[in-house]
Predict the structure.
Amino acid sequence: MVEEKQELLTPEQQSMWKRQHRDDKSKSASPEQKKAWNRDLRQKLESMSPADLAKTRMSLQAEWDAQPAEQKEKKQQRLAEKAKKSADKSHDDDDD
């Protein structure tokens, strides 16, 4: 039985979190470096106290909500495409 991982942030909050922690080097990073970077960001979230995590969620959500509607729509479309691609990949893995 596969245990579902509890997500610490919504996809929208994740988008804001990564945006806050991205630098110019991340664009030219190798896939392995990007995976390590994402793993480090996740560990940073997981190590937060519940109060700090709640504060971070509220801050990220406020940042998301403050964006222009057009920008949010574009990002939500990309997030939906990414989620579909991920779901398709996991279904492909189930066929093995």
Notes: Residues 69-94 form the longest helix (26 residues). The chain is about 75% helix and 0% strand.
